[in-house]
Structure formats: C-alpha cells, structure tokens
Amino acid sequence: MLQHIIEIPINKILSNPFQPRLDFNEDKLNELAESIKLHGVLQPVIVTEAGDGYRLIAGERRTRAAALAGLAVVPAIVRSLNSQDMLEWALIENIQRQDLNPIEEAKALSFLSMEFKLTHKEIADRVGRSRSYVTNALRLLSLPEAVKSDLEAGILSCGHARCLLSLDNCRAQLKAWNCIKSKKLSVRETEKYINSLCALKDSIRREKDNNKLDADWQSVIDSLRGSLNVEINLKYRSDGSGKLELCFKNQEELENLIEHFIH
Length: 263
Hints:
Blueprint: E1 5-9, E2 13-14, H1 26-39, E3 45-50, E4 53-58, H2 60-68, E5 73-78, H3 83-97, H4 102-116, H5 120-127, H6 131-139, H7 145-153, H8 158-164, H9 170-183, H10 187-210, H11 215-228, E6 231-236, E7 242-247, H12 251-262
Parallel strand pairs: 2-4, 3-5
Antiparallel strand pairs: 1-5, 3-4, 6-7
C-alpha cells in the first residue's frame, strides 16, 4: 500500500504526550544528527494533524536529530489517530527498535492498561508480545524505586529483576539487590542466591508452624507467665525435643526466678 509522504516544517511538529521513551541519549542523538547531515532523514516520521500544526506519533529521535542537524523540514506521513492509537504507535515503534528501557516499556504498558482499560491479553495483541511478557513487564513496576532506577540505567538486567520479584516485599528485594551488586553476581548466581533466601524463609516459617502451641499448652504457658511475671517461650520439634525459655530483663527478675525455683 502506497503512503503519501509530505515535507513538514519541524517547528510545526508538537511532541507526542504519550511518548513512552523518556531518556534520549545525547551522544546518540548527535551521531544520528551527523548521519542526517550526510544522508538526510531516510525514514519518514508519522504525525497527526493538531490545530495549525502536527502532533508527532512516531519518530521523535529522528525529529530531534534533524533539528540538531539544522534541517527546517522532515519527511512525514500524516495519519488520523486518537490518543490510544498514538500511544500504541509510539510504543510499538520503540519496542520494535528496542529503544525503550524496561521501566519505560512497563510504564507505557501500564498506561494502556489503566487509561484505556485493556486486559493484558489485549495489550499483548496490540504490541505484538505474549500475554506473559506483558504481565512480567508490568511486575517490574512493583520493585523498589532504587532498584527501578538501576534497571533504567542498565545497572540491573531484566534477568536480575525477575529473580528479585521472587521475594515478597520491597525491603527484602532492596537488601538482596545491594548484596548482588556488591558481589557482582551473574543472573545464574543471583538465581541460586534468591532461591537460598526463599528456602531459608520457608524453613523459618515451617519451624514457626511447628512451634505453634495447642490450646492446652498455651494455657499452661500463660499461667506460668502470670506466676513468674516473666516472658516464657516454649519451642519444640516434631521428634518431641525442644526447649523452654525464661526471659528476664534485669538482675532483679533473675534473682526472683532463682528464688522461686529454689523454694
């Protein structure tokens, strides 16, 4: 299908408010500008009419670089699109070019979900990804801000991030990521490390479950607490062994306990 390409003044082009890409590398823009000086803008940008000018849909890097190169006009294709279409076009172009960092992409997908009430499946169909890809991308937004910043900066990889999502709270995720960074763990090493943390947590939870007292034993412990006026902990294992802890806060409480048992 042939598309009509026209020359549009750069000063008539407005930025796309739904542009998912937030970080435009200055060095790469300058490199593109130098290329445009030599060869021109080889691929037209896509715009939609907006009052007396045009609203950019796709091609913001090319437009910025063309301006840096001193061009007054750029080749463009004019389309009639609504807000949702504008976001989808900008998102699809950036995804296909792999221009978005993981957080920029996740935020754009989240916008499609929240603003236009699209399901993960509907988003996946529109941007050419699988439903699981969309779901996993959106989960990245639940990471702590410091971790997301490292992901945006490329310090943290998506592989590392997916491992961190196995931990169930931000504090644990942040603590684990600091350890991973300091030790410079690979993704495979990170997987083993996170699995060990999860296994330890499961072990502690099972131990706590095993230490839960039935109603009769709880009644005995409560009675002892009242009698001795100290904190008491009863811990036992499935084989019947365990320990009874009497916790004192000061010398006076210790002396009272000793006196109680002596007499």
